[in-house]
Amino acid sequence: MTRTPPFIFSIVPSLILLSVAFLPSSRAGVVDPRCRVPDRGSTLRVFHVNSPCSPIRPATGGLSWEENILRMQAEDQVRLQFLSSLATGQKSSVPIASGRQMIQSPTYIVRVQIGTPGQTMLMAVDTSNDAAWVPCSGCVGCSSSTVFDPTKSTSFKAVGCQAAQCQQVPNPTCGVRSCSFNTSYAGSTIAASLSRDTFTLATDPISGYTFGCVQKAAGTSIPPQGLLGLGRGPLSLVSQSQSLYQSTFSYCLPSSKSLNFSGSLRLGPVGQPVRIKYTPLLKNPRRSSLYYVNLIGIQVGRKVVDIPPAALAFNSTSGAGTIIDSGTVFSRLVAPAYVAVRDEFRKRMGNATVTSLGGFDTCYNVPIVAPTITFVFDGMNVTLPQDNILIHSTAGSTTCLAMAAAPDNVNSVLNVIASMQQQNHRVLFDVPNSRVGVAREACS
Questions:
Q1: Model pTM?
Q2: So what CATH class is 273-440?
Q3: How far apart are CA 92 and CA 86, in angstroms?
Q4: Same fold, 17-60+89-251 and 273-440
Q5: Whole-angstrom distance, CA of residue 146 vs CA of residue 135
Q6: What are residue 380's DSSP bridge partners?
Q7: Domain 17-60+89-251, what fold?
Q8: Which of 126, 130, 197, 430 is catalytic?
Q9: Which of 39, 76, 197, 325 is catalytic?
Q10: Which residue in 442, 427, 441 sits closest to 125, CA to CA?
Protein backbone atom coordinates (compact mmCIF):
# COMPACT_ATOMS: atom_id res chain seq x y z
CA MET A 1 0.00 0.00 0.00
CA THR A 2 1.50 3.34 -1.05
CA ARG A 3 1.57 6.05 1.58
CA THR A 4 1.74 9.75 1.00
CA PRO A 5 3.70 11.86 3.53
CA PRO A 6 1.73 12.88 6.62
CA PHE A 7 -0.13 16.16 6.34
CA ILE A 8 -0.05 18.72 9.14
CA PHE A 9 -3.45 20.14 9.94
CA SER A 10 -5.35 22.20 12.48
CA ILE A 11 -9.00 22.92 13.12
CA VAL A 12 -10.85 25.22 10.68
CA PRO A 13 -13.37 27.60 12.21
CA SER A 14 -16.72 27.80 10.49
CA LEU A 15 -15.74 30.73 8.26
CA ILE A 16 -12.75 31.44 6.03
CA LEU A 17 -12.43 34.51 3.83
CA LEU A 18 -11.17 34.26 0.27
CA SER A 19 -9.69 37.18 -1.64
CA VAL A 20 -10.31 40.20 0.54
CA ALA A 21 -6.95 41.87 0.03
CA PHE A 22 -8.75 45.15 -0.64
CA LEU A 23 -10.24 45.31 2.84
CA PRO A 24 -8.89 47.28 5.79
CA SER A 25 -7.84 45.95 9.15
CA SER A 26 -10.44 45.68 11.88
CA ARG A 27 -8.32 48.01 13.99
CA ALA A 28 -9.68 51.51 13.51
CA GLY A 29 -7.52 53.63 11.22
CA VAL A 30 -4.96 50.87 10.63
CA VAL A 31 -4.54 48.92 7.41
CA ASP A 32 -2.44 45.78 7.61
CA PRO A 33 0.00 45.70 4.65
CA ARG A 34 -1.01 42.10 3.96
CA CYS A 35 -4.51 43.31 3.14
CA ARG A 36 -3.22 45.45 0.29
CA VAL A 37 -1.84 42.58 -1.80
CA PRO A 38 -4.07 42.20 -4.89
CA ASP A 39 -5.20 39.00 -6.54
CA ARG A 40 -3.05 38.08 -9.52
CA GLY A 41 -3.69 36.18 -12.73
CA SER A 42 -6.14 33.38 -12.06
CA THR A 43 -5.20 32.94 -8.38
CA LEU A 44 -7.13 34.42 -5.49
CA ARG A 45 -5.63 34.80 -2.04
CA VAL A 46 -7.24 32.97 0.87
CA PHE A 47 -7.55 34.60 4.28
CA HIS A 48 -8.64 33.19 7.60
CA VAL A 49 -11.79 34.77 8.99
CA ASN A 50 -9.87 36.05 12.02
CA SER A 51 -7.17 37.70 9.91
CA PRO A 52 -6.82 41.49 10.03
CA CYS A 53 -8.37 41.57 6.54
CA SER A 54 -11.65 39.94 7.44
CA PRO A 55 -14.80 42.09 7.38
CA ILE A 56 -17.11 39.27 8.44
CA ARG A 57 -15.70 37.80 11.63
CA PRO A 58 -18.31 35.54 13.23
CA ALA A 59 -20.10 37.21 16.10
CA THR A 60 -19.52 34.80 18.97
CA GLY A 61 -21.05 37.07 21.58
CA GLY A 62 -18.52 36.03 24.21
CA LEU A 63 -19.22 32.32 23.80
CA SER A 64 -16.89 29.90 25.53
CA TRP A 65 -14.77 27.42 23.56
CA GLU A 66 -17.27 24.66 24.34
CA GLU A 67 -20.21 26.82 23.21
CA ASN A 68 -18.42 27.68 19.97
CA ILE A 69 -17.79 24.00 19.27
CA LEU A 70 -21.48 23.26 19.86
CA ARG A 71 -22.40 26.12 17.51
CA MET A 72 -20.21 24.70 14.74
CA GLN A 73 -21.66 21.24 15.32
CA ALA A 74 -25.17 22.64 14.94
CA GLU A 75 -24.18 24.34 11.68
CA ASP A 76 -22.59 21.13 10.42
CA GLN A 77 -25.73 19.17 11.24
CA VAL A 78 -27.78 21.49 9.02
CA ARG A 79 -25.13 21.08 6.34
CA LEU A 80 -25.30 17.27 6.56
CA GLN A 81 -29.07 17.40 6.23
CA PHE A 82 -28.67 19.53 3.12
CA LEU A 83 -25.99 17.30 1.54
CA SER A 84 -27.99 14.16 2.20
CA SER A 85 -30.98 15.67 0.45
CA LEU A 86 -28.77 16.49 -2.55
CA ALA A 87 -27.33 12.98 -2.71
CA THR A 88 -30.70 11.25 -2.60
CA GLY A 89 -32.73 13.81 -4.52
CA GLN A 90 -35.08 14.34 -1.58
CA LYS A 91 -36.28 17.67 -0.22
CA SER A 92 -34.40 18.92 2.81
CA SER A 93 -35.95 19.65 6.18
CA VAL A 94 -34.10 21.35 8.99
CA PRO A 95 -33.69 19.64 12.38
CA ILE A 96 -34.78 21.68 15.38
CA ALA A 97 -32.28 22.25 18.18
CA SER A 98 -33.80 23.55 21.39
CA GLY A 99 -32.52 26.99 22.34
CA ARG A 100 -29.99 27.17 19.50
CA GLN A 101 -30.42 29.13 16.28
CA MET A 102 -29.53 27.10 13.19
CA ILE A 103 -27.35 29.35 11.06
CA GLN A 104 -25.41 27.76 8.21
CA SER A 105 -22.44 30.09 7.87
CA PRO A 106 -20.64 29.91 4.54
CA THR A 107 -17.28 28.23 4.87
CA TYR A 108 -15.38 30.17 2.21
CA ILE A 109 -15.98 33.53 0.61
CA VAL A 110 -14.59 34.71 -2.72
CA ARG A 111 -14.37 38.25 -3.97
CA VAL A 112 -16.24 38.64 -7.26
CA GLN A 113 -16.69 41.76 -9.37
CA ILE A 114 -20.11 41.64 -11.04
CA GLY A 115 -21.24 43.91 -13.85
CA THR A 116 -19.78 46.83 -15.81
CA PRO A 117 -18.36 48.68 -13.96
CA GLY A 118 -17.76 45.92 -11.42
CA GLN A 119 -19.62 45.81 -8.13
CA THR A 120 -17.76 43.88 -5.41
CA MET A 121 -19.56 40.95 -3.77
CA LEU A 122 -18.17 38.46 -1.25
CA MET A 123 -19.80 35.24 -2.43
CA ALA A 124 -19.70 31.91 -0.63
CA VAL A 125 -17.86 29.21 -2.59
CA ASP A 126 -19.57 25.83 -2.37
CA THR A 127 -18.21 22.69 -4.04
CA SER A 128 -21.56 20.92 -3.63
CA ASN A 129 -23.71 23.50 -5.45
CA ASP A 130 -23.93 24.79 -9.00
CA ALA A 131 -25.87 27.95 -9.81
CA ALA A 132 -24.62 31.32 -8.62
CA TRP A 133 -26.96 33.79 -7.01
CA VAL A 134 -26.60 37.20 -5.35
CA PRO A 135 -29.00 39.50 -3.49
CA CYS A 136 -30.17 42.24 -5.81
CA SER A 137 -31.47 45.72 -5.06
CA GLY A 138 -35.00 45.61 -3.71
CA CYS A 139 -34.65 42.08 -2.36
CA VAL A 140 -37.20 41.27 0.33
CA GLY A 141 -35.70 39.34 3.25
CA CYS A 142 -32.04 39.56 2.18
CA SER A 143 -29.82 40.12 5.21
CA SER A 144 -26.83 41.72 3.49
CA SER A 145 -26.34 45.47 3.38
CA THR A 146 -24.36 44.93 0.16
CA VAL A 147 -26.54 44.08 -2.83
CA PHE A 148 -25.98 44.01 -6.58
CA ASP A 149 -27.74 46.79 -8.48
CA PRO A 150 -28.49 45.66 -12.06
CA THR A 151 -29.46 49.17 -13.14
CA LYS A 152 -25.86 50.33 -12.61
CA SER A 153 -24.39 47.68 -14.94
CA THR A 154 -24.28 48.30 -18.68
CA SER A 155 -23.71 44.58 -19.36
CA PHE A 156 -26.65 43.20 -17.35
CA LYS A 157 -29.30 41.19 -19.23
CA ALA A 158 -32.33 39.18 -18.17
CA VAL A 159 -32.49 35.55 -19.35
CA GLY A 160 -35.62 34.76 -21.34
CA CYS A 161 -37.87 31.78 -20.82
CA GLN A 162 -36.80 30.20 -24.10
CA ALA A 163 -33.15 30.05 -23.11
CA ALA A 164 -31.70 26.61 -22.35
CA GLN A 165 -30.53 27.84 -18.94
CA CYS A 166 -34.13 28.33 -17.86
CA GLN A 167 -34.53 24.54 -17.85
CA GLN A 168 -31.31 24.06 -15.85
CA VAL A 169 -32.46 25.88 -12.71
CA PRO A 170 -34.76 24.33 -10.09
CA ASN A 171 -38.47 25.07 -10.29
CA PRO A 172 -38.37 27.52 -13.23
CA THR A 173 -41.30 29.84 -13.94
CA CYS A 174 -41.87 32.42 -16.65
CA GLY A 175 -42.51 36.03 -15.82
CA VAL A 176 -43.38 38.85 -18.18
CA ARG A 177 -39.93 39.11 -19.73
CA SER A 178 -37.61 36.70 -17.95
CA CYS A 179 -37.14 33.29 -16.37
CA SER A 180 -37.40 32.99 -12.59
CA PHE A 181 -36.72 30.12 -10.21
CA ASN A 182 -37.10 29.04 -6.61
CA THR A 183 -34.59 26.97 -4.69
CA SER A 184 -33.59 25.98 -1.17
CA TYR A 185 -30.22 26.18 0.55
CA ALA A 186 -29.95 24.20 3.78
CA GLY A 187 -33.02 25.44 5.68
CA SER A 188 -33.67 28.57 3.64
CA THR A 189 -35.38 29.45 0.37
CA ILE A 190 -34.80 32.06 -2.31
CA ALA A 191 -36.75 33.36 -5.31
CA ALA A 192 -34.58 34.78 -8.09
CA SER A 193 -34.75 36.00 -11.68
CA LEU A 194 -32.29 34.37 -14.05
CA SER A 195 -29.79 36.92 -15.33
CA ARG A 196 -26.50 37.37 -17.20
CA ASP A 197 -23.60 39.70 -16.55
CA THR A 198 -19.82 39.83 -16.44
CA PHE A 199 -18.18 38.07 -13.49
CA THR A 200 -14.54 39.00 -12.83
CA LEU A 201 -12.40 36.68 -10.68
CA ALA A 202 -8.95 38.08 -9.87
CA THR A 203 -8.02 39.56 -13.26
CA ASP A 204 -10.17 37.21 -15.37
CA PRO A 205 -13.48 38.58 -16.76
CA ILE A 206 -16.14 36.00 -17.68
CA SER A 207 -18.75 37.67 -19.86
CA GLY A 208 -22.36 36.55 -20.00
CA TYR A 209 -22.21 34.58 -16.74
CA THR A 210 -25.65 33.18 -15.89
CA PHE A 211 -26.76 33.65 -12.27
CA GLY A 212 -29.79 34.26 -10.11
CA CYS A 213 -30.67 37.79 -9.08
CA VAL A 214 -32.36 37.17 -5.73
CA GLN A 215 -35.65 39.04 -5.24
CA LYS A 216 -36.91 37.34 -2.08
CA ALA A 217 -35.28 35.28 0.66
CA ALA A 218 -36.47 33.46 3.77
CA GLY A 219 -34.48 31.67 6.47
CA THR A 220 -31.16 32.02 8.27
CA SER A 221 -28.98 29.69 6.17
CA ILE A 222 -28.30 31.93 3.18
CA PRO A 223 -24.79 33.37 2.69
CA PRO A 224 -25.34 37.15 2.99
CA GLN A 225 -23.84 38.22 -0.34
CA GLY A 226 -24.74 35.15 -2.35
CA LEU A 227 -23.19 31.91 -3.55
CA LEU A 228 -20.82 30.85 -6.33
CA GLY A 229 -21.18 27.14 -7.10
CA LEU A 230 -18.08 25.05 -7.82
CA GLY A 231 -19.99 21.84 -8.48
CA ARG A 232 -20.06 20.02 -11.82
CA GLY A 233 -23.51 21.04 -13.07
CA PRO A 234 -24.14 23.13 -16.22
CA LEU A 235 -24.57 26.45 -14.38
CA SER A 236 -21.53 26.08 -12.10
CA LEU A 237 -18.34 28.11 -12.38
CA VAL A 238 -16.58 24.93 -13.50
CA SER A 239 -18.94 24.61 -16.49
CA GLN A 240 -19.50 28.26 -17.38
CA SER A 241 -15.77 29.04 -17.41
CA GLN A 242 -14.76 25.82 -19.16
CA SER A 243 -13.09 27.57 -22.10
CA LEU A 244 -11.03 29.71 -19.71
CA TYR A 245 -10.18 27.28 -16.90
CA GLN A 246 -10.69 23.87 -18.57
CA SER A 247 -12.93 22.78 -15.65
CA THR A 248 -9.91 22.60 -13.34
CA PHE A 249 -9.33 24.31 -10.00
CA SER A 250 -7.55 23.76 -6.70
CA TYR A 251 -7.46 25.29 -3.27
CA CYS A 252 -5.07 25.30 -0.34
CA LEU A 253 -6.57 26.14 3.05
CA PRO A 254 -4.43 27.78 5.74
CA SER A 255 -4.21 26.60 9.31
CA SER A 256 -5.98 28.73 11.89
CA LYS A 257 -2.63 28.81 13.74
CA SER A 258 -1.02 30.62 10.82
CA LEU A 259 0.21 34.14 11.44
CA ASN A 260 -0.27 35.17 7.82
CA PHE A 261 -3.69 33.51 7.46
CA SER A 262 -3.26 33.15 3.71
CA GLY A 263 -3.77 30.39 1.19
CA SER A 264 -5.04 30.38 -2.38
CA LEU A 265 -7.75 29.38 -4.82
CA ARG A 266 -6.13 28.58 -8.18
CA LEU A 267 -8.35 28.48 -11.27
CA GLY A 268 -7.33 26.59 -14.41
CA PRO A 269 -4.60 24.01 -15.17
CA VAL A 270 -1.72 26.50 -15.20
CA GLY A 271 0.43 26.40 -12.07
CA GLN A 272 -1.16 23.29 -10.59
CA PRO A 273 1.19 20.84 -8.81
CA VAL A 274 2.93 18.25 -10.97
CA ARG A 275 3.87 15.82 -8.19
CA ILE A 276 0.49 14.85 -6.85
CA LYS A 277 -1.39 11.63 -6.14
CA TYR A 278 -4.89 11.18 -7.56
CA THR A 279 -8.03 9.25 -6.81
CA PRO A 280 -10.84 8.86 -9.37
CA LEU A 281 -13.92 11.05 -9.19
CA LEU A 282 -17.19 9.13 -9.22
CA LYS A 283 -20.54 10.40 -10.47
CA ASN A 284 -23.99 10.05 -9.01
CA PRO A 285 -26.40 10.58 -11.94
CA ARG A 286 -29.04 11.72 -9.47
CA ARG A 287 -26.75 14.50 -8.28
CA SER A 288 -23.86 14.72 -10.70
CA SER A 289 -22.46 17.93 -9.21
CA LEU A 290 -21.24 16.29 -5.97
CA TYR A 291 -17.58 15.29 -5.84
CA TYR A 292 -17.76 11.61 -4.94
CA VAL A 293 -14.52 9.69 -4.32
CA ASN A 294 -13.86 6.03 -3.57
CA LEU A 295 -12.94 5.68 0.11
CA ILE A 296 -11.97 2.03 0.51
CA GLY A 297 -10.66 1.89 4.07
CA ILE A 298 -9.52 3.74 7.19
CA GLN A 299 -6.45 3.06 9.32
CA VAL A 300 -5.90 4.01 12.95
CA GLY A 301 -2.17 3.97 13.42
CA ARG A 302 -1.06 1.10 11.20
CA LYS A 303 -4.16 -0.97 11.79
CA VAL A 304 -6.86 -1.16 9.12
CA VAL A 305 -10.08 -1.03 11.10
CA ASP A 306 -12.87 -3.47 10.37
CA ILE A 307 -15.55 -1.52 8.49
CA PRO A 308 -18.42 -3.28 6.69
CA PRO A 309 -17.86 -2.73 2.95
CA ALA A 310 -21.41 -1.43 2.55
CA ALA A 311 -20.58 1.51 4.85
CA LEU A 312 -18.07 2.85 2.32
CA ALA A 313 -19.49 1.55 -0.97
CA PHE A 314 -20.64 3.97 -3.65
CA ASN A 315 -24.27 3.53 -4.68
CA SER A 316 -25.75 6.00 -7.14
CA THR A 317 -29.32 4.88 -6.42
CA SER A 318 -29.24 5.47 -2.66
CA GLY A 319 -26.68 8.30 -2.76
CA ALA A 320 -24.29 6.31 -0.56
CA GLY A 321 -20.56 6.87 -0.72
CA THR A 322 -18.02 9.54 0.18
CA ILE A 323 -17.84 13.16 -0.97
CA ILE A 324 -15.31 15.96 -0.56
CA ASP A 325 -17.14 19.08 0.60
CA SER A 326 -15.95 22.63 1.26
CA GLY A 327 -18.87 23.63 3.47
CA THR A 328 -18.67 21.08 6.32
CA VAL A 329 -16.17 21.71 9.13
CA PHE A 330 -15.88 18.28 10.82
CA SER A 331 -15.75 15.02 8.86
CA ARG A 332 -18.77 12.78 9.29
CA LEU A 333 -18.79 9.04 8.73
CA VAL A 334 -21.76 6.69 8.57
CA ALA A 335 -22.30 4.99 11.91
CA PRO A 336 -20.60 1.60 11.24
CA ALA A 337 -17.47 3.33 9.90
CA TYR A 338 -17.31 5.91 12.65
CA VAL A 339 -17.84 3.38 15.44
CA ALA A 340 -15.00 1.21 14.10
CA VAL A 341 -12.63 4.17 13.97
CA ARG A 342 -13.72 5.53 17.33
CA ASP A 343 -13.41 2.19 19.13
CA GLU A 344 -9.88 1.59 17.84
CA PHE A 345 -8.94 5.16 18.75
CA ARG A 346 -10.25 4.69 22.30
CA LYS A 347 -8.40 1.41 22.56
CA ARG A 348 -5.14 3.22 21.83
CA MET A 349 -5.89 5.65 24.68
CA GLY A 350 -5.80 2.85 27.26
CA ASN A 351 -7.72 3.47 30.46
CA ALA A 352 -8.12 7.25 30.05
CA THR A 353 -11.66 8.31 30.99
CA VAL A 354 -13.82 9.20 28.00
CA THR A 355 -16.16 12.21 28.12
CA SER A 356 -18.32 13.89 25.47
CA LEU A 357 -19.01 17.34 24.07
CA GLY A 358 -22.15 17.62 22.01
CA GLY A 359 -21.76 15.39 18.95
CA PHE A 360 -18.15 14.55 19.86
CA ASP A 361 -18.34 11.39 21.95
CA THR A 362 -14.61 10.77 22.41
CA CYS A 363 -13.10 13.51 24.57
CA TYR A 364 -10.47 13.47 27.30
CA ASN A 365 -9.63 15.79 30.16
CA VAL A 366 -6.05 14.56 30.47
CA PRO A 367 -3.14 14.91 28.00
CA ILE A 368 -3.18 12.21 25.30
CA VAL A 369 -0.96 11.11 22.44
CA ALA A 370 -3.19 10.15 19.55
CA PRO A 371 -2.39 7.78 16.70
CA THR A 372 -2.56 8.92 13.09
CA ILE A 373 -5.71 8.28 11.10
CA THR A 374 -5.35 7.45 7.41
CA PHE A 375 -8.08 7.73 4.81
CA VAL A 376 -7.36 5.07 2.20
CA PHE A 377 -8.72 6.07 -1.21
CA ASP A 378 -8.47 4.25 -4.50
CA GLY A 379 -4.92 5.18 -5.58
CA MET A 380 -4.19 7.63 -2.77
CA ASN A 381 -3.71 7.64 1.01
CA VAL A 382 -4.14 10.72 3.21
CA THR A 383 -2.58 10.41 6.65
CA LEU A 384 -3.82 12.75 9.38
CA PRO A 385 -1.59 13.42 12.41
CA GLN A 386 -2.76 14.74 15.78
CA ASP A 387 -3.20 18.36 14.74
CA ASN A 388 -5.65 17.21 12.10
CA ILE A 389 -7.81 14.88 14.15
CA LEU A 390 -7.90 16.57 17.57
CA ILE A 391 -9.44 19.79 18.81
CA HIS A 392 -8.23 21.34 22.05
CA SER A 393 -9.97 23.75 24.38
CA THR A 394 -8.33 27.14 24.76
CA ALA A 395 -7.62 26.33 28.40
CA GLY A 396 -6.09 23.01 27.39
CA SER A 397 -8.34 20.97 29.65
CA THR A 398 -10.38 19.16 26.99
CA THR A 399 -9.27 17.28 23.88
CA CYS A 400 -11.72 15.63 21.47
CA LEU A 401 -11.51 13.38 18.45
CA ALA A 402 -12.80 15.82 15.83
CA MET A 403 -14.92 13.41 13.82
CA ALA A 404 -18.44 12.21 14.36
CA ALA A 405 -21.11 9.87 13.10
CA ALA A 406 -23.69 11.19 10.66
CA PRO A 407 -26.66 12.66 12.60
CA ASP A 408 -29.44 10.18 13.29
CA ASN A 409 -32.07 12.43 11.73
CA VAL A 410 -30.49 12.62 8.28
CA ASN A 411 -29.88 10.07 5.54
CA SER A 412 -26.94 8.27 7.12
CA VAL A 413 -25.42 6.71 3.98
CA LEU A 414 -23.13 9.64 3.10
CA ASN A 415 -19.54 10.06 4.33
CA VAL A 416 -18.25 13.64 4.15
CA ILE A 417 -14.55 14.58 4.08
CA ALA A 418 -14.75 18.05 5.62
CA SER A 419 -12.61 21.17 5.67
CA MET A 420 -10.72 20.19 8.81
CA GLN A 421 -9.08 17.47 6.73
CA GLN A 422 -8.38 19.91 3.89
CA GLN A 423 -5.73 22.14 5.47
CA ASN A 424 -2.11 22.74 4.52
CA HIS A 425 -2.39 20.67 1.39
CA ARG A 426 -3.66 21.44 -2.09
CA VAL A 427 -6.82 19.71 -3.25
CA LEU A 428 -6.97 19.66 -7.06
CA PHE A 429 -10.24 19.02 -8.88
CA ASP A 430 -9.50 17.84 -12.43
CA VAL A 431 -12.97 17.35 -13.89
CA PRO A 432 -12.00 16.58 -17.51
CA ASN A 433 -9.90 13.65 -16.32
CA SER A 434 -12.42 12.67 -13.59
CA ARG A 435 -9.96 12.78 -10.72
CA VAL A 436 -9.09 14.68 -7.57
CA GLY A 437 -5.54 15.07 -6.36
CA VAL A 438 -3.95 15.82 -3.00
CA ALA A 439 -0.45 17.23 -2.52
CA ARG A 440 1.15 18.48 0.66
CA GLU A 441 1.63 22.24 0.66
CA ALA A 442 2.21 24.83 3.33
CA CYS A 443 -0.77 27.06 2.74
CA SER A 444 0.49 29.93 4.86
A1: 0.82
A2: mainly beta
A3: 8
A4: yes
A5: 8
A6: 377
A7: Cathepsin D, subunit A; domain 1 (2.40.70)
A8: 126
A9: 325
A10: 427
Residue type, 85: S
Which 8-state DSSP code applies to residue 426? E
- Walking along the chain (444 residues) 10 residues at a time, the average pLDDT comes out as 33 34 34 60 62 52 65 70 65 26 50 93 85 94 91 97 91 85 84 96 94 91 84 94 96 65 82 94 88 97 96 92 87 94 96 91 92 96 86 82 81 83 87 93 76
In sign, the C-alpha dihedral spanning 151, 152, 155, 159 is negative
325 is catalytic: yes
For the chain, what are the domain ranges? 17-60+89-251, 273-440
Q: Helix, strand or coil for residue 87?
A: helix
